[in-house]
Design brief:
290 residues, alpha/beta, Rossmann fold, 2 domains, six-stranded mixed β-sheet, six-stranded parallel β-sheet, 10 helices, globular, binds NADP nicotinamide-adenine-dinucleotide phosphate
Length: 290
């Protein structure tokens, strides 16, 4: 594209940002849809998020994504918050308004679109969520909102799972999230589960790691969804498949959280066909077939 005086700028605030796939998502969409927009990563040093947001506003940036470790810290710098983002307590998208930025969380809706795309439903399901960090918290909230029967949240640090469970259960008005320590997986009730892997264990380059290594656990899983997309197939996914389950990685979640942000910034709706073009490009990049 040719950058000119009218080109709108969007970007990513985070640390680190070197390996982000977001520029590929947004710049590909801008090209397909013919929008005069460019998306760039911005490395923000610790303690400088507020300055980064004020500076972005002064520079007339159209919108921003926010990634690790600033998804909660950025909230203090916003003019307004979307209700959903407020309930989750984390923001990954800033949309420019008259007087400042409004914060949204498109991770959760992104995961929902990704699961819907794969034919995975949460309604009435017994669900296991591994992890209680930023991403797992959004997953637990999504499961609860979409009518899960029970969500067993297993985390290495039990206290964090208890905190998330307390908050989500209070917001939902029902005891839907059950916090457990990771090593208590053998105390899960009988039956088959949808399991969402939301810890950072197994992320490249530590591709041989898995948060629960016991084969017996995988007999409980009918569908495994790992939020990790690098490696393309995690050990969690391999073990799920080895025990007869279906398994998916987190690339579609990443894709759709980006698409929803793009839609908010540009007030458009991205078609399934265009989403597929971006997905294939990301997949080719991740699997080395470029
Ligand atoms: P986070 O807030 O740092 O949380 C990390 C989680 O992993 C915590 O539950 C932590 O447990 C657990 N963990 C870390 N090391 C562990 C170990 N050795 N053994 C057991 N548990 C361990 O990170 P996050 O932002 O939630 O991200 C989690 C994962 O989701 C990352 O791999 C990230 O790449 C992925 N993600 C993907 C997308 C997507 O679009 N696909 C979006 C967001 C995140 P403790 O609480 O005990 O420390």
């Amino acid at each position: 594209m040719e950058i000119n005086g009218k080109t709108r700028v969007c970007g990513l605030l985070g640390n680190p940002v070197e390996h982000t796939l977001s520029p590929m998502i947004h710049n590909t969409l801008a090209k397909i849809l013919g929008h005069d927009m460019v998306y760039v990563p911005f490395l923000v040093e610790p303690g400088r998020v507020a300055e980064a947001v004020t500076g972005s506003l002064a520079l007339n940036l159209l919108g921003l994504n926010v990634t690790v470790p600033y998804k909660s810290e950025v909230i203090a710098s916003l003019q307004e918050m979307d209700d959903l983002a407020g309930n989750i307590g984390a923001v990954n998208t800033l949309v420019r308004t008259e007087g400042g930025y409004k914060g949204y969380n498109t991770d959760m809706e992104g995961l929902y679109r990704a699961m819907t795309d794969e034919g995975i439903s949460m309604e009435g399901e017994q669900i296991i969520v591994l992890g209680a960090g930023g991403a797992a918290r959004a997953v637990a909230y999504l499961c609860a909102v979409k009518g899960a029967d029970r969500v067993y949240m297993l985390n290495r640090t039990l206290g964090k799972a208890q905190t998330v469970a307390g908050e989500v259960n209070r917001t939902m008005g029902r005891d839907v999230i059950v916090p457990m320590a990771m090593e208590e997986y053998n105390k899960l009730p009988e039956g088959k589960f949808l399991a969402v892997q939301g810890t950072s264990v197994g992320l490249a380059p530590h591709v041989d790691d898995v948060v629960i290594a016991d084969e017996v656990f995988y007999e409980k899983i009918h569908t495994g969804f790992d939020l990790i997309y690098s490696p393309w197939e995690t050990r969690f996914m391999k073990m799920t498949k080895a025990h007869g389950g279906r398994a998916y990685n987190g690339l579609k979640m990443l894709l759709y959280q980006g698409i929803i942000a793009y839609e908010l910034w540009n007030r458009v709706s991205v078609s399934k066909e265009d989403a597929q073009v971006v997905y294939e490009k990301l997949k080719a990049h991740l699997t080395g077939k470029v």
